[in-house]
Amino acid sequence: MIGPDLQDLVDGAALISGAPVTLEDREFNLVAVSAHQRPGDTVRQDSIMHRRATAEVRRYFESFGIAHAPGPVSIPPDPARGLLGRLCIPVRWQSVTYGYLWLLEDPEAGAGNGHPMPLPELVAAAARAGGEMARRSRLREDLGWKVGDLLSTYPETRARAAEEIAESWSMPPGTPVAAVAVRSAGKGDPVFVNAWRLPRTILVGSGEHASTFIVPLSAPGDLAAARGITRSAFAALTASIAGASVPTPAAGIGGAVAGLVQARESWLQARIAARVAASRNAAAPLVLEWPELGVHRLLGAGTDAALREAVLTSGVAALLAEGGPELVRTAKSYLDSAGSAQRTAQALGIHRQTLYHRLERIERISGLSLDSGQDRLQLHLALTLLPGLDH
Hints:
Layout: H1 6-17, E1 21-25, E2 30-33, H2 42-50, H3 55-62, E3 73-75, E4 86-93, E5 96-104, H4 119-150, H5 155-168, E6 177-184, E7 192-193, E8 203-206, E9 210-216, H6 224-235, E10 237-238, E11 249-253, H7 263-279, E12 286-289, H8 304-311, H9 314-322, H10 324-336, H11 341-348, H12 352-366, H13 373-385
Parallel strand pairs: 11-12
Antiparallel strand pairs: 1-2, 1-5, 3-4, 4-5, 6-9, 6-11, 7-10, 8-9
Helix pairs in contact: 1-4, 4-5, 9-10, 10-11, 10-12, 10-13, 11-12
């Protein structure tokens, strides 16, 4: 059974109160927000922009006892902190707090600000939100455990998980799917995606350093829905520690598969694509798709150790150890440009004679001939795959 839409509940609370309204979960992640005629205070702006309140803001509001209050809590304005007054209504179901409904005083519009609010209607709206958040939380938690089984190495476990998920999933069992993996482009920085901001049909799993989404597709082979969820996931990214900066994300989209039973195949592809995207060190979020990954698909052909041993020949190792970043970058650019000196020099912003001098040094250090197709393949494959391997 589909419960009430949380955005509709928030919009309804704003309509009957005349105040700007937000709904946050108990971790202060933004779940839904009503339209605002004015920007409100800095805390409200930051919460909407970053999709989550900072640790300092959370501690301040929790100091008013909102986590255990039996009913609405009025928080007075604090000019020193740049805070407007607000009414907090705990969102609960069966005495469990799932979040908070916030109504901001708007002095210019006269909303809140000492004017009586329709508390019974607002409390009732918070109760409906609590029931829906509890239902979704239980469903997400239950399906989250089953997603782990869905990606298992054991075929029997995957088949059983697909069958169990299909019973509570609001999609036909034969719906084609694709996996999306979202991770940090940095080294070891975990990412946290606020799942409340994603559609209910998305299956969510998580690991130590990445988030996984199994996305139903509108048609076999059509990855448009997976691309849309990737954009939504980036928008819903929050720092793993409140108040910390959000790491630059990278994402991979696996190929489309026929149904849930085959989701592991797409997930393995998405992980490889995300790893390659993270290795590009892009300043902006980067998304790569398995169908367009080219030679990087070889990253799924074996373990990192085996692949490293295969491509890290003595000549390649010598160049990496003695050539330095400048020569390695020159070699990669030259090989990416199919051996065109003109295009390589333009890409690197150097004179062609400087390029020739560097190419001679590359050959001398590595012992490889850039006139040999086999030597060029050996070097190009290594410089392409090594950045995507975990060291």
